[in-house]
Each structure stands twice: as structure tokens, then as C-alpha cells.
Design goal:
The structure holds 3 protein chains of 3 kinds. By secondary structure, chain A is mostly helical. In chain A, β3 and β4 form a beta hairpin. The longest helix of chain A is centred in the N-terminal third of the chain and has 36 residues. By secondary structure, chain B is an all-alpha fold. In chain B, α2 runs antiparallel to α3. The relative contact order of chain B is 0.21. Chain C is α+β, with helices and mostly antiparallel strands. In chain C, strands 3-2-1-5-8 form a 5-stranded mixed β-sheet, with no helix packed on it. Chain C has a 5-stranded mixed β-sheet with strand order 4-10-9-6-7. Classes of the chains: A mainly alpha, B mainly alpha, C alpha+beta.
């Protein structure tokens, strides 16, 4: 770069760095919304939890090293194995993915941040607080102890009277909030917040993987959240959802849990596979074979993975044909995986692979993950699973696919992106030693565990008798476990040593083609001084001097405009620049909101229900305050976005991130509702002790009026949108009032169901299910009413205009959803007894 | 001064159309089977006929979808070629998956 | 003349005996070989116990377990072939051929990525369905034995009204059907040497069929975590020759239910952890 260009780049840097960094005050770091900072927080916290989970595992291996060992008693051992699974699955794997995506996605997509930066920060705090609840429970000896999957009736109140299970249900739900927020954010970001020219077909594969994973999270988490809520209200208030004596069914929990649980493991695997697809071409020296094939395989795999869940329930007595559906699907899901594996192999064969340290981890991944996949095919065969289910064979299988399929690629990525994170890259000796210790230790621990399972050792036993042939395999596994632990400790040491002492890394040390290498290392707070125009899948390979060009302001949106953080918004499919997305600055609001939610959760946990209700209202207030900070009060002019583009800021554009955010939130919500309906119908048809002693009292008038109110509310919301488009402020206000009153009436009509019409929810699962349905409907209508009031205030303060109409359109969307789901609830509640008596 | 070209985000919906039909088939077959067996413990030929009927209907819908997507792909402008090709491939894969998923209904004891 | 006939008889007996021994010895040798291959993969693992064990799936004593064990060996063979193929290819790619490898990418993706798994999985699925159909329980028969599970013992109720606890008496060589129930949480009935497991779920009755080839004792365990007594919730199946069955059953009958025996031994680390947790709670002022 010439002297002048160098100075220009430095000027831009000095202009942008303070703008995108958190405030330099003492507590300013608590207000950070910058994605790199939040992403690293997620990853560091996740690694801390991984180490805790590892210690728990070593406690188990110490206990199982010999027969009749009495290191831990059965109650403590139960807490240890429950927390090992819970910590690894909920507090390590998913947050690691979230953190990595938060950090990497904008860079890969050529953007400056994600779609909703405050949501990222909020997600982190929820994760941290929820994780701390669980960790505290562990330290105080009241950790959950019915297994990480919390089967009922063992996890129900009569058989788990302590607070342990409640801590799992409440703590994990708080952590789930972060996962759902992350999912919504990634979906919108990949769709809209890319740099100019980056069509969907030109996106890095890792972005595709993360997009598909987010879609899976959106649809996969609702059953778990629903199940957790149902079990918690069963424990706290006696609603017998899972108690067969009260018309509930223990299997309902299993269905809801595994509807989440199986996609969960693919949610964990896919991003790691994305890392493999990113690193492999770099180290093979050629682009990945079969880009379109992999995209198709990815989407197929995502869908198919939702059809497998009953393979965790093969021994529950479900009819063989039902089992066969899931056995068939479990076998079928291997095909898209095979497509990816062979694409990788083809890339290796056609390229010139070099065995750098990240590549060592990838080869380890191949061996371990493929082994795990093969045993997975075996257990998909029902008669074989009937023998090995709930034995150590399954423990071996799950560790092969999860450690091989997730931990190894993550470690590969860690070493690969180290220059990005810390700007340094050091000698690989310690790293290689660590790899071999972990690889050998892992196989030592878990390969022989297949035999342990075949010899009949069940899961979750704190000790075993002599003479069954289990002594030597367990001892070998325990020794292997310690070897692995040493290996992981070396990795931690290696990272710390590199952070402190390694040599400064040159630009793009691996000669990679993706955009995260087009910026200085370590990455600056703003990513790109100006955003690139992209025409190829590997922009860095395409244009040699891209970094210099961007650093000197030769792309879109150079520098900043009026001290406002911003990034480019594009058309979802073609990548044509469409809008300038205005990004919020640092704020304490995410922290305050997360703390309020945690406070409400803790109040509920300790039975202070009025406190929980009060703080829940506090959360609503935080949300409204948050939403108030969106949009513009004046009509904006088009902005010069560079490279000849004049674009409007996002509040004045129809398909802004906020609109897509509402769409995806409703997808999540609809899945939750579908799970609730499924639960209701499942209890009706399958659960024992039905029909209930009494059905809901017939009330056709109230039902009809409620339905009318729901319809009117949605209709009025759309009329308000139309009025606003005509700049008819008076008309808009009027229709908003109608919306508010109609949804208020609908809320009352729905609340009337459990209060006046339905039988007691504690007597029979029927009443409990009706209560949940009515509560869901009332919540949505109630929120619509509040929303109508809020939007009226926004209208009065000048936030709305024919172009700036997001508030109204989102209200109309939400109101329509509330109306449709409310109508379905009315039908399910008022009409089902008529069908049932046929 | 421009607000940008008309968004083509509906193309992304085409990506999931094939497997959305597969999901429907799966739910209908699994749920239908569960319901039929719950109300009639034996599950005679009538029940199997109903399930096979559902299966065939969805397969026909998928075949139609494939033909439509194929025509769309051949006529697509350059920037939409990729996504329409992937949509078509997925529709074909979804139909294969539906055939596979329905095999138990055609071959095994019903209840 | 008689001596020659005698000698011929002895030789015939010897032939039959050695043939029978050969028939039984061969599968055991194969199993042993398979086990050794498994061990070979685990770096430096010692294999002193082999595959035998009272709870071993690989030492079947009933037709259901036998079929699954055979299926396992076939699947293991197939898995080893595929793993070797994939790893071999990945390692082969490291050879310095320097870009001389030419092949059709599409052929690899369609042929290996799609066709190969489809074919293998279809065959496996057909075998799986066929086996599964064979193992289905038929409708309720006269001779269903009730197996009731509770924390942490098993009680069995026979068609003739007798009841036993933690010991199930059956006739060897005859299929028997169990009706599994639970009085509290989910348990799972599993006798590995005879067949697969089935959960006992409160509010439901699950049926399973089993058969023991020969008289003997076959250990069983609960295979679903059911609380702190889970690891000790064992039982056994005693298979008798038809003649001995009634007597054995009568000898073992118990009149009613008795309390489950829960083994509790002191655990040193447990006490330390408890003390520490108590200390922390005290310091926080909670207790």
C-alpha cells in the first residue's frame, strides 16, 4: 500500500474503532453489543463450562474404574451424571455454536454486525445467568438428579420432591431464551444482512450451515420449552400432565423431549460440519467439491432429522409399525451425511492436502465421526437397539458422534481462526502433542466402551458387581479418560501460551478465500472499513488486493455517517443492495432485561409467585422500552451507500430486518403452539384414564363472541396499516383503538374458559391442557392489546408514516397470528368434547 | 433515488416446498396410523388402504411439484438459477424420502 | 459280531459327539475372532474376559438373543469395511500425487454419496423389518406372566396364582409372554442373554415374548434409571425342564409383598462433598 493509502486506512480506522467499541467507562463493558465481543464472551464461557463438564466426567470415571467402588454415593452420582449431560449439551455445545456464529457470521457475510445487536447481548446474559443458576445448584449439592433428559414420573414431584428438578426446568428455560434469540437473529442476518452482490449461491458454505442450523433451532426448541413449562407447572401446581393416575401420560414428556432432543444433536453437528467444509478446501488447496450438492444435502438433513425422535423410545412398547417409520428415517438420514462425507473426500483427493495442525483435527474428526455414524446405523435397527438401548454401547456411540462430530472440528476451527481472534500464530508442537493425547485417550476411553455395553453394563449405574467381565473395560476407559483430560489441559495451556507469547501472524496465513481474512488481525471492532461488492464464492481468491481496497474506503458504506453505526442490507436471494441498516449503539438494556427475567425465574423457583408475576410485567416494560428505541421520528433521505448506490435506511423500507424478525418469531411461536396442540390431542387419544370426569361447559355464545373479537382485532390492524399508507393519522388511530378493544375482549373471552367453564386443572390432565391452551391464547391477545396501545403512542410521537410503517405491519402480523391461533384454540377447546362423545 | 429492486425472497420458500410435503406425509402417516390403531386395535385392510391413499396422494403432489420446478429452472434468469436448481433437487430428494418413509405402511403388520 | 456292532456304535456316537462339538465350537471361535478385532482397534486394550458374561448380549441363550447377536456380527463386519474404506481414502489423499487424480466429481457424489448408502441401507432395513416382525408379541394369551416393577424390586404373578419376587420361573424351550407393569416410575425389564428389553411404564401394560433354550439361571437387570436403587434392581430367570417346573415354582412362592432391600454403604468422597455443601449453605445463611 502507498503512503497515502496507508494514511487513509488509518484515518478510517481511527474514525470507526471507537464508534463500534463499547464505552471506555468502568462498567461500559456491560453495555457492549458489538458482535465480536459478545461472541468471544459466549465462547469463553462455553469453554469454561466444558471444563466443568469434563471434571464431572472424570468424577464418573473415577467412580467406575473398579467394581463396588464407593467414591460417590448413588444420590451424588446421579447429580454428577445429570449435570455432565446438561452442562455439555446446554451450557457448552449450543452456546459454543452461538458464540462462534455471533463472531464469525458478519465477517463471512461481509457485514459490520448482525441484524439485532442488542438481542445478541441479551442472549449472552440469559445464558450466563441460567448457567449460573445450574452451577450454583451443583455447588450447593442440589443439582438436578433425574438424568439430563428428566424422564417422568421420576422427575415429577412424588419421586423427586426436592428443588433439584425445578432448577433444571427453570434454569434451562432461561438458557433456552438465548438459543431462540440467537436463532431468530441468525435467520434474519443470513437472509438480509449480507454485503452487496453476495447472492445466496455465492455465500460461504458455513453461512448456509449456520442458516439451516438456526432454522432447526427455531423449530426444535419449542417442544422442549413447552415440556419444561408443563413439567414445572405439574410440580409446582399439581397439573397432572404426566401422571397416569390423573389422565396424564409419562410418554408425552418423552415425545416432547425427543422432538427437541434429536434435532438438537444435528443442531450441534451441522455447524461443526460447516467448519469442516470451510477448512478442508483451504488445506486441500482447492475449492470444495459439490457446493450445490452440499446445500441440498444440508436442507434434506435438517428436515429428516425431525423425523427420527422415536428412535430414542424404541423400548417403550410403541407398535412396531410406528417404530418402523423412525427406523426407516434414521437410516435415511445417513444419505445426506454420506453426500457431505464423499464431497469432502473428493476435495481431498483432487487437491493437495497439507497436514497442518487444524487438518490433524479434521482427520481425527473423520475417523471418530464416521465410526459414530456407523454405530448409529446399527442402533437404528430396532431389534439390535432393543438389546443395546440404555447400555454403555449407546454411551460410546453418542460420544463418538458428539465428540468426533463437534469437539474435533471446533478444535480445528480454534487453531485455524486463532490469528483472527488474537492476531498471533505460534509453534504447533504443543498443539500436536495435545491432539495425539486427546485422540488416543478418546479412543481408549470409548472404543472399548462398545464392548462394555455389549457385555450388558447399563447406563447410569453408580457401581457394578464383580464377575460380569466389566472390570477391565471400565478400568481401560477410566485410564483413557485421564489421558484425554491431560490432552485437553494441554490445549488450554497452548491457547494461553499462544495468546501471550506467539509471533504476530501475517495477513491471511492460511491463504484462505473467505471474507473474514480481508480485515486486520486481530479483527477490529467494525470488521470492514468499507463493505465489499462480491461476485465470487471466494472473494479473497478472486481479488488479490481486496483488503487494501476495503481498508481505504473503496467499498460500500465507507467510514460512518453522522456517528451512526450501520451496515448494508440486501435482497435475500440475489444480494442486490437494498437498504442501509442502522445499528444501535451500546446499551445496558439487554443486561437489565436479562436480570429481570432471571429474577422472575428465581422468584418462581422459590415459590414467590407474586414476585414472579411482578417481574414478568417488568420484562414486558423492558421490552416496550427496547422497542421504543427503534425506528425514526423523521422522514429519512436516501443515503449515499457508496459504489453509486443511493439507499433508504431500514425503517423506511418494507422488508426490513424487524419485519423478518417478526416472521421468524411467529414461526417459533407457531411451532410452540403446534406442540401444545399435539400434547392436547396425544393426551386425548393415548393417555390412560380418559375420558375425564367432566368436560368443559358448552358456551357457544361466549365462544362465538370471542372468535368475533379475534377476527375483528386482526381485521382492524390491517385497516390501520391501510389508513397509515394513505397518511390518514386519524383513521389509523381509530383502527388501532378498535384493535386494542377487540383483542382485550378476546383476552377476556379466553380467560373465561379456565375461570368459569372448564373443570379443575389439578383434577385431570384434560383441565390442565385446556388451561394451558386458554393461557396461550389469552397471552397472545393480551399482547396484541398492549401492542395496539404502544403503536398508538408511537403514532402520536411521529414514528409512523406511509413509508415508516413497520410497527403497524408487525402489529398486524402478530394480531393475525393471535387471531388464527386463538380460533384454533376455541375450536380445540369448545368443539373437541363434541367429537369425543361421538 | 431508489428503494432497491423488488425482493425475490419467495424463492427461498421454494427451497423448502419439497420437504414440507414430506413432513406432511410423515405426520399424516405416523399420526394417522396412531389414531387408527388407537380406535381400532386390529387395524384391518381398510386402515391400510387409508394410509396408502394418503401416501399416494402426497407422492402425486410431489411429482407435480417436481415438474413445475423443472420448468421454472429451465426458464430462470441467471441470478435465480442456483436457488431454483437446489429447489428442484430437493423436491426430487423429498419424493424419494417419501417413498422410503412409506415403505413400512406397505409391508408391515398394522397394529 | 456283537463286539463289531459295539465298536461301530461307539464310533457312531463319537462321530455324532464330535460333529455336535464342532457345530457349537465354530460360532464361538468366530465370536472370539470378532471380539479380538474389536480389541485390536482400542489401542493397547487388554482382553482377558472375552465376550462371555452373565449379562452379555454376545453369549445368547435364547432364540431372540441369538438372532440379534448374529445381526451384530454382520453389522460389525460391514462397519469395519466402510470405516477402513473411508479412512483409507482420506489417508491415501495425503500421498504426494500432485494433482494427477482425475475423476468425475458427479460420479463420486451420486455413486458413493447416494447410491451406495441407499443400497446398503435398503438391505439393512429389509433385514431389520423382517427381524422385527418375528419378534412381535402376539395378543394376550392364557399363559401371560405378570411382571410388576417398583422401586426397587420385581414381583411376578403366574397364571396359576403363585407369586415370586426377583426370581422368575419358566419352562426351558417354551416361549413365555410377560405383561410388564410399574407401580411408580419407568423401569425396564432386561435379560440380555435371552432377548431385548421392554420398558415398564406406569399406566400402561407392555407385552414381550422370550424363550430360554436350555435349563439354567439367567440374570436380568432394570435398564432404565429409576432412582438411587437402580444399580441394585436385579432379578433372575430360572428356566426348568418341564418336569421340574411346578415344584420349583411352589418352593419359591411368597405370600405377599416385602420391602425392597436397598444397599447403602458409606462413601468417603460423598461425606466430604456433603460437608462442603453444608458449609457453603451455612455461610450463605440459608441453613
Amino acid at each position: 500500500m502507498s503512503e497515502a493509502a496507508h494514511n487513509e486506512a488509518l484515518d478510517l480506522h481511527h474514525e470507526l474503532e471507537p464508534l463500534y467499541s463499547p464505552p471506555r467507562t468502568r462498567f461500559g463493558f456491560l453495555a457492549a453489543t458489538n458482535h465480536s465481543i459478545v461472541g468471544i464472551r459466549f465462547m469463553v464461557t462455553a469453554i469454561a463450562f466444558f471444563l466443568i463438564g469434563g471434571v464431572l466426567a472424570m468424577l464418573m470415571r473415577a467412580q467406575l474404574a473398579g467394581p463396588d467402588t464407593q467414591f460417590l454415593d448413588p444420590g451424588q452420582y446421579a447429580q454428577v451424571f445429570t449435570m455432565h449431560g446438561t452442562v455439555m449439551m446446554f451450557l457448552f455445545a449450543i452456546p459454543m455454536i452461538e458464540g462462534f456464529a455471533l463472531y464469525m457470521l458478519p465477517k463471512l457475510l461481509g457485514s459490520r454486525d448482525l441484524a439485532f445487536p442488542r438481542l445478541s447481548a441479551f442472549g449472552y446474559w440469559c445464558y450466563l445467568f441460567g448457567g449460573l443458576i445450574l452451577l450454583t445448584a451443583l455447588l450447593l449439592g442440589v443439582a438436578p438428579d433425574s438424568g439430563w433428559f428428566m424422564y417422568t414420573p421420576l422427575a415429577s414431584k412424588p419421586f423427586s420432591p426436592g428443588i433439584n428438578s425445578d432448577i433444571w426446568l427453570v434454569g434451562i428455560t432461561v438458557v433456552e431464551i438465548s438459543a431462540v434469540c440467537a436463532a431468530i437473529e441468525f435467520m434474519v442476518t443470513v437472509l438480509k444482512v449480507r454485503t452487496g452482490g453476495m447472492a445466496l449461491g455465492k455465500m460461504p458454505l458455513l453461512a448456509w450451515y449456520l442458516w439451516v442450523t438456526s432454522a432447526m433451532m427455531l423449530v426444535g426448541f419449542p417442544p422442549l420449552i413447552l415440556g419444561s413449562i408443563m413439567l414445572e407447572v405439574e410440580r409446582a401446581f399439581g397439573l397432572p400432565f404426566f401422571d397416569p393416575g390423573g389422565g396424564g401420560d409419562p410418554l408425552l414428556w418423552q415425545h416432547l423431549f425427543w422432538l427437541f432432543g434429536h434435532p438438537e444433536v444435528y443442531i450441534i453437528f451441522l455447524p461443526a460440519a460447516g467448519v469442516v467444509s470451510t477448512l478442508l478446501p483451504v488445506f486441500a488447496g482447492r475449492p470444495l467439491v459439490g457446493y450445490a450438492w452440499i446445500v441440498a444435502a444440508l436442507i434434506a438433513q435438517a428436515f429428516l432429522s425431525f423425523g427420527l425422535w422415536v428412535h430414542h423410545m424404541f423400548t417403550t412398547g410403541i407398535p412396531h409399525l410406528s417404530l418402523a417409520f423412525f427406523s426407516a428415517a434414521s437410516l435415511l438420514v445417513v444419505v445426506p451425511t454420506a453426500v457431505q462425507v464423499f464431497a469432502w473426500l473428493a476435495t481431498l483427493l483432487k487437491g493437495r492436502p497439507r497436514l497442518e495442525l487444524p487438518m490433524l483435527w479434521l482427520y481425527g474428526f473423520f475417523f471418530i465421526f464416521v465410526s459414530g455414524g456407523l454405530t448409529g446405523v446399527m442402533v437404528a435397527v430396532v431389534p439390535f437397539d432393543w438389546q443395546v438401548h440404555d447400555t454403555h454401547f449407546i454411551v460410546a456411540h453418542l460420544h463418538y458422534v458428539l465428540v468426533g462430530g463437534f469437539v474435533f472440528p471446533v478444535l480445528a476451527g480454534l487453531y485455524y481462526w486463532m490469528p483472527q481472534f488474537i492476531g498471533r500464530r505460534g509453534d504447533q508442537g504443543l498443539g500436536r502433542l495435545a491432539f495425539w493425547l486427546i485422540f488416543v485417550g478418546f479412543n481408549l476411553t470409548f472404543m472399548i466402551m462398545h464392548l462394555t455395553g455389549l457385555l450388558g453394563m447399563p447406563r447410569r449405574v453408580y457401581t457394578y458387581a464383580e464377575g460380569l467381565g466389566w472390570e477391565i473395560p471400565n478400568l481401560v476407559s477410566s485410564i483413557g479418560g485421564f489421558v484425554m483430560t491431560i490432552g485437553f489441559a494441554l490445549v488450554v495451556i497452548d491457547i494461553l501460551v499462544q495468546w501471550r507469547f506467539a509471533a504476530i501472524s501475517p495477513r491471511n496465513p492460511w491463504k484462505a478465500g473467505t471474507l473474514e481474512w480481508a480485515m486486520p488481525t486481530p479483527a477490529p471492532a467494525y470488521n470492514f472499513a468499507s463493505q465489499p461488492h462480491v461476485t465470487a464464492r471466494e472473494p479473497m481468491a478472486d481479488e488479490g488486493d481486496l483488503p487494501a481496497k476495503l481498508a481505504t474506503g473503496g467499498g460500500y458504506l465507507p467510514g460512518h455517517r453522522g456517528g451512526q453505526r450501520d451496515t448494508l442490507g440486501v435482497d435475500g436471494v440475489t444480494g442486490e443492495p437494498e437498504q442501509v441498516i442502522l445499528l444501535p449503539g451500546p446499551t445496558y438494556l439487554p443486561l437489565v432485561t436479562a436480570a429481570t427475567i432471571t429474577g422472575a425465574a428465581l422468584c418462581f423457583l422459590f415459590g414467590i409467585y407474586w414476585g414472579a408475576a411482578l417481574l414478568a410485567l417488568g420484562v414486558l416494560c423492558c421490552g416496550l422500552r427496547w422497542l421504543w428505541d427503534t425506528g425514526l421520528r423523521h422522514e429519512p433521505e436516501p443515503i449515499d451507500a457508496g459504489l453509486g448506490k443511493l439507499l433508504l435506511p431500514h425503517p423506511a423500507v418494507a422488508q426490513s430486518p424487524g419485519w423478518w424478525g417478526m416472521i421468524f418469531t411467529l414461526v417459533f411461536d407457531a411451532t410452540f403452539f403446534a406442540s401444545l396442540l399435539f400434547g392436547y390431542l396425544f393426551l386425548w387419544t393415548i393417555a390412560p384414564n380418559w375420558p375425564p370426569p367432566a368436560y368443559i361447559e358448552p358456551a357457544p355464545v361466549i365462544a362465538a363472541l370471542t372468535a368475533l373479537a379475534l377476527g375483528l382485532s386482526a381485521f382492524a390492524a390491517y385497516r390501520a396499516v391501510a389508513a397509515n399508507t394513505r397518511s390518514d393519522a386519524g383513521g389509523t388511530r381509530l383502527w388501532l383503538i378498535v384493535t386494542g378493544l377487540a383483542s382485550f375482549a378476546a383476552t377476556a373471552g379466553l380467560i373465561a374458559i379456565p375461570v368459569f367453564l372448564a373443570p379443575s386443572p389439578t383434577e385431570h390432565a384434560y383441565g390442565a391442557a385446556v388451561l394451558m391452551l386458554a393461557a396461550y391464547g389469552a397471552l397472545h391477545s393480551g399482547l396484541t392489546a398492549v401492542g395496539a396501545g404502544f403503536v398508538s403512542l408511537r403514532l402520536a410521537r411521529g414514528f409512523l408514516s406511509p413509508r415508516r410503517s413497520l410497527d403497524l405491519r408487525n402489529l398486524a402480523l402478530f394480531g393475525t397470528y393471535a387471531g388464527a391461533s386463538g380460533a384454533a384454540i376455541l375450536a380445540a377447546v369448545h368443539l373437541m368434547p363434541l367429537v369425543g362423545s361421538l | 433515488m431508489t428503494a432497491g429492486p423488488r425482493p425475490t425472497n419467495s424463492e427461498a420458500a421454494g427451497l423448502v416446498a419439497g420437504f414440507a410435503l414430506w413432513s406432511l406425509a410423515f405426520l399424516a402417516l405416523y399420526g394417522g396410523h396412531g389414531t387408527l390403531c388407537a380406535f381400532e386395535a386390529e387395524g384391518g385392510t381398510d386402515a391400510r388402504a387409508v394410509l396408502l391413499g394418503i401416501w399416494t396422494t402426497i407422492l402425486i403432489a410431489q411429482a407435480a411439484l417436481i415438474l413445475w420446478f423443472a420448468r421454472r429452472w429451465r426458464a430462470s434468469p441467471a441470478e435465480l438459477r442456483f436457488i431454483r436448481l437446489v429447489s428442484l433437487v430437493l423436491a426430487i430428494a423429498a419424493m424419494a424420502a417419501t417413498v422410503w418413509t412409506g415403505l413400512p405402511v406397505a409391508t408391515l403388520t398394522l397394529c | 459280531m456283537n463286539r463289531v456292532a459295539e465298536q461301530r456304535d461307539t464310533r457312531a456316537h463319537a462321530d455324532v459327539r464330535s460333529f455336535v462339538e464342532f457345530r457349537h465350537a465354530r460360532p464361538t471361535r468366530l465370536r472370539a475372532k470378532g471380539c479380538r478385532a474389536l480389541f485390536g482397534l482400542a489401542a493397547g486394550a487388554l482382553a482377558l474376559g472375552g465376550c462371555a458374561g452373565e449379562l452379555s448380549i454376545l453369549e445368547p441363550a435364547g432364540p431372540a438373543a441369538e438372532r440379534v447377536a448374529t445381526l451384530w456380527w454382520i453389522m460389525l463386519g460391514g462397519a469395519l469395511v466402510i470405516l477402513t474404506g473411508v479412512m483409507g481414502t482420506a489417508l491415501y489423499a495425503l500421498r504426494p500425487d500432485r494433482g494427477t487424480r482425475q475423476f468425475s466429481e458427479r460420479r463420486v457424489l451420486i455413486g458413493w454419496g447416494l447410491m451406495f448408502p441407499f443400497a446398503t441401507l435398503l438391505a439393512l432395513m429389509a433385514a431389520a423389518f423382517w427381524r422385527g416382525e418375528q419378534l412381535l408379541a402376539r395378543a394376550e394369551t392364557e399363559d401371560t406372566i405378570g411382571a410388576h416393577s417398583q422401586q426397587w424390586l420385581w414381583s411376578f404373578a403366574y397364571p396359576d396364582g403363585s407369586r415370586t419376587q426377583n426370581v422368575l420361573h419358566v419352562v426351558a424351550g417354551e416361549e413365555f409372554t410377560l405383561a410388564l407393569t410399574s407401580g411408580d416410575v419407568i423401569h425396564s425389564f432386561w435379560v440380555p442373554r435371552l432377548g431385548g428389553k421392554m420398558d415398564a411404564i406406569p399406566g400402561k401394560v407392555n407385552r414381550m415374548r422370550l424363550e430360554a433354550d436350555a435349563p439354567g439361571t439367567y440374570r436380568g437387570i432394570c435398564a432404565e434409571y429409576c432412582g438411587i436403587g437402580h444399580a441394585h434392581m436385579e432379578f433372575e430367570i430360572r428356566a426348568h425342564a418341564p418336569a421340574d417346573y411346578q415344584a420349583a415354582l411352589a418352593a419359591d412362592s411368597v405370600p405377599g409383598d416385602s420391602e425392597p432391600v436397598l444397599e447403602q454403604r458409606s462413601a468417603p468422597a460423598a461425606r466430604i462433598i456433603e460437608n462442603w455443601a453444608d458449609y457453603l449453605l451455612e455461610w450463605l445463611g440459608v441453613q
